[in-house]
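Q: Give me the 3D complex with flavin-adenine dinucleotide.
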Amino acid sequence: MLDDPRSHGLWENMAPAAPQTASLPGDLNADVVIVGGGFTGLSSALHLAQKGAKVVVLEAVEIGFGGSGRNVGLVNAGMWVMPDDLPGVLGEDYGDRLLKLLGNAPDLVFDLIGKHKIECEAVRSGTLHCGVGAAGVRELEQRAGQWAKRGAPVHLLDADETAKKVGSTVYAASLLDLRAGTIQPLAYVRGLARAAIEAGADIFTGSPVVSAERSGQRWSVQTSRGSVSADWIVVATNAYTKAPWPQVRAELLHLPYFNFATAPLSENLRAFILPERQGAWDTKEILSSFRFDSQGRLVFGSVGALRGTGTAVHRIWAKRALARIFPDIGDVEFEAGWYGKIGMTSDSLPKFHRLAPNVIGFSGYNGRGIAPGTVFGQVLARHISGELSEADLPLPITDPQEQTFRTLREACYEAGSQLAHLAGTII
Ligand SMILES: Cc1cc2nc3c(=O)[nH]c(=O)nc-3n(C[C@H](O)[C@H](O)[C@H](O)COP(=O)(O)OP(=O)(O)OC[C@H]3O[C@@H](n4cnc5c(N)ncnc54)[C@H](O)[C@@H]3O)c2cc1C
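A: Here is the predicted complex, encoded as structure tokens.
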């Protein structure tokens, strides 16, 4: 994409081709126009088209260009916020509703993959949240207890059990969440696009929306070469938002996150590291994540951007970190390195916005957007088709709140991650 191997890296090298799409050629009519071709927009398109709506998706660049094509591929259940804290933040009704919806959200992802035969290296053997030090163990104990009392299949593993599951002795405990799994994210989002097209949606790429106007009860959105008139607009642009809804971007702090993929590891290492193929990440503030792809490449990531001095700093750190966590791994070669921006909200919760009458969208997934984006896309479809009233949505309607000192704080994330990695912080 954009001829830049640092944008989608391994995922672009290995994913099945995207369905053929072109840019918007002229003026069209639809029931719903969806702006943004990631998990949220394409799940919304698929579910609306299945209900018989005439749907047009406009994507500025390519399918999966934003976070959906660049992420780690951990299909998580729930959010960062502790389950018990949610009702206090959102109120009982929304808190319970959101917990149920996002706790079960991986089901929808794996169901869609099965139903639409999406080839995306799907593995559902759970995820391992790995505890670093006493503080990490305390956090996992709380999380485990709060999910367990809600009947979720989560298991707190001690250091020995963790060492067997991870293939490393550096972690003090881990939380195995059997609701979760891993996918190849670009392959998944391309598969969603194919399924949406098969259900009747029209998708146009290379078609940035530049403006939106209300005319009577209808909306018209414009690109440089055409327009779409529709009753509803779904704004699914999230952290990669370009005009005409800059407030969606302004509400989010961009946290850069990179991944490196090793060459396929030896059979011995593959049998020893993550032998059951869970996806893993740790409890540190500047966290690290690791998982395998289907051909035995270890994908290792952390906070930072692969640009400027960051490219070398993070690469050198990643090699050292891998050697520290997996001492037998040796001097690994990286086949690919890429990065993207995660959209963080001020309270770590996603948001539902009505930006104008019949202009709606979800955003702000705080680095957990595969399952939420998929399930929120379905919620948008159910709301637009009249199945789900406003009062029954999983989040209250809020106005986007601009984050203060955004530019400065984003620069601090980028510089701070380099400093931390230069200082050699690993475990
Ligand atoms: C490096 C990284 C690692 C991550 N790891 C994980 C993970 O392991 N698990 C997980 O669950 N989540 C993860 N996430 C988060 C997850 O990827 C995102 O939350 C999710 O992809 C958001 O999907 P989306 O469809 O809402 O937005 P996006 O996928 O960002 O799509 C938005 C699209 O809108 C388009 N767009 C913007 N403006 C316009 C316009 N004016 N006109 C037309 N199109 C427009 C963009 O080009 C973009 O393609 C990660 C994110 C990153 C960046």
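A quick observation: The chain is about 35% helix and 25% strand.
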